[in-house]
Design a protein that fits this description.
CATH superfamily of the largest domain: HUPs
Distance between the termini: 57 Å
Number of strands: 16
Helix content: 25-40%
Structural class: alpha/beta
Order of helices and strands: EHEEHEHEHEEEEEHEHEHHEHEHHHHEE
CATH topology of the largest domain: Rossmann fold
Largest sheet: 9 strands, mixed
CATH class of the largest domain: Alpha Beta
Strand content: 15-25%
């Protein structure tokens, strides 16, 4: 079968000035890692795009699926190539354009050309006019109902005259956008089994951060009700965006019981969250992270009022990122469906946070009030206890699948 060509366009990377080559090299590396195991003939960079040439069309669907999880790509096009004919340069272009559009359904169309190879004898405007006229006549002769719309066409036939192949395609596939993986430093995300924290992690991954995860779990009433299996599946779903990740698992229920015995009831859940942040910060520092990520959304629950978020966050000495703080639940759920974490988070599991939940949690606590509520506790000793009992699992995305590299106990200072 004929080889397919995939045109990869990027957008935001143009803004990087002197650092542009760094980001482009990271994007190229990410594409190569994402496509590992597929039969790729070559990845070239003719002009301001990448072109991926497959050895066989049979792997086109899998290739597009994997590229859809590569941050930094603005859009993709599956292109056919046109031969170069010095004596009749328009002939192959018109034939390729007609093959590209004749089976499509549309009410309006336009032709857009870009000529980065100035050796081609016609400029972009001439190509658009001539090929557009040819398509107009062919569509009219075939009885197709259509109109030409140069402002907002339903279908755009794109022609790119590169220093390499001459590419023609009629449909653009949206990419993930954002910045290439592993270009912005490391972060550590407090991962629950719910919808929010995994979406928060994905948002930071999409901006180039490499995210590791800390999950606090409690035992369920029946075997298998722990949230650990949900956390694992969420990490597996997110790893393809950045290729590797660590999942730290912290048994939290013994620490919760200590808080329940010693602290005032209305502050209980806020003290849970404070302790989680303290433990996660120690894990983050051990892994050379530059900050913590949570799935907090303003006023979604009692612990996420502005006052409570400030009072809880006061115990950290690292930057605390809340990428969902201005998003509502419907927006978060929509992203969760898009990235494939929604159905995982919708599974029943035992969430440790609601355990021993107060009937009337404090809405407007201050850091001083929480300090006083912790007077009967020993937070540093509780942090040490949590670190001594945690385990870590390592995951890697390779050849289109996620594998668990190892699982072990890890001492975190």
């Amino acid at each position: 079968m004929a080889a397919a060509h995939i045109v990869v366009h990027y957008h935001e990377l143009w803004l990087k000035g002197g650092n542009r080559d760094f980001f482009l090299s990271k994007l190229r590396l990410a594409m190569r890692r994402a496509l590992d195991g597929l039969r790729i003939a070559r990845i070239t960079e003719p002009g301001d795009r990448y072109v991926i040439e497959l050895l066989d069309d049979a792997e086109l669907g899998e290739t597009l699926e994997r590229l859809g999880r590569v941050s930094g790509i603005a859009n993709l096009g599956v292109a056919r190539t046109a031969e170069r004919d010095p004596e009749n340069p328009l002939g192959p272009l018109c034939a390729a354009a007609w093959e590209e559009v004749r089976k499509e359904t549309f009410a309006s169309f336009a032709v857009r050309a870009k000529r980065s190879d100035k050796r081609f004898p016609l400029n972009a405007l001439s190509i658009e006019r001539e090929v557009g006229g040819y398509l107009h006549d062919q569509l009219q002769a075939s009885g197709h109902s259509f109109r030409v719309d140069l402002r907002n066409p339903e279908l755009t036939c794109r022609i790119e005259i590169t220093p390499g192949p001459v590419l023609v395609y009629a449909r653009r596939i949206p990419g993930a956008g954002g910045l290439p993986a592993n270009t912005a430093g490391r972060l550590t995300c407090l991962l629950s089994g719910g919808f929010d924290s995994s979406v928060a992690a994905w948002k930071m991954m999409r901006r180039g951060a490499h995210v590791n995860f800390v999950h606090f779990w409690g035992g369920g009433a029946k075997p298998g009700e722990s949230s650990v299996h949900v956390a694992r599946e969420l990490v597996k779903r997110l790893v393809p965006w950045q290729f590797t990740a660590k999942l730290y698992l912290v048994p939290f229920e013994p620490l919760q019981r200590e808080i329940m015995r010693q602290a005032p009831e209305q502050y209980r859940i806020l003290l849970y969250r404070r302790l989680m942040l303290r433990i996660a910060e120690r894990v983050a520092r051990g892994g050379r992270s530059l900050g913590l990520v949570t799935g907090d959304s303003l006023a979604q629950v009692a612990s996420q009022t502005l006052q409570n978020m400030a009072a809880v966050g006061a115990v950290t000495h690292m930057p605390l990122y809340r990428p969902l703080v201005g998003d509502d639940k419907l927006e978060i759920l929509e992203i969760a469906k898009k990235i494939g974490t929604h159905d995982i988070s919708a599974e029943p599991f035992h969430d440790c946070c609601p355990v021993f939940l107060p009937k009337a949690p404090a809405l407007f606590a201050t850091a001083q009030e929480l300090d006083a509520a912790e007077a009967g506790l020993n937070p540093e000793e509780m942090v040490r206890s949590g670190l001594q009992t945690l385990s870590v699992e390592r995951y890697r995305y390779t050849q289109g699948r996620v594998i668990q590299v190892e699982s072990l106990r890890e001492a975190t200072a």
